[in-house]
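Researcher: Next entry: O-methyltransferase C-terminal domain-containing protein (Eucampia antarctica).
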Amino acid sequence: IGGGYGDMMSAIVQKNPDIKCINLDLPDVISSVSNPPSSVEMVSGDMFIPSTIPPCDVIIMKHVFCDWNDQKAEEILNSIKCALTSKGKVIIIDALLLDGAEATENKQFMAFVDLQMMMVGGKMERSKSQLNNVSKKCGFEIESVLKTSSISCDITTLIKI
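Model: Predicted structure:
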């Protein structure tokens, strides 16, 4: 969801040719793709409108979830939940802010990130506990978190509860 021109889905299919990838984005974005990847189905839709989201096993959002405050994030999760199979998963690729003792060590960086995100229209990076709170309200829980070497990309997997 919010996959733009489909580059990430194309890379996933190249490494996993047996899976079907669908790239869903707003109609204006999908119609602007001049050379869509042949291995990826490009679908116009809206993550806030469940009927536009095709049924799937996994939904990936990279640098999408952090663009929304908690209320909108809950709307997104409730909307995409309808498209997921019973064992479906949501993969969120965003920075996770630190919790607890880790947060104390990086307080200045966290304050800077939070302030920057809030100043640009209510966007927000979340800590693991904040993401878990939003997720649980919508019937999901965190299954795993994979820290990467990038400060802007942690990979969090949510499962239905």
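Model: Note for the record: The longest helix spans residues 107-119.
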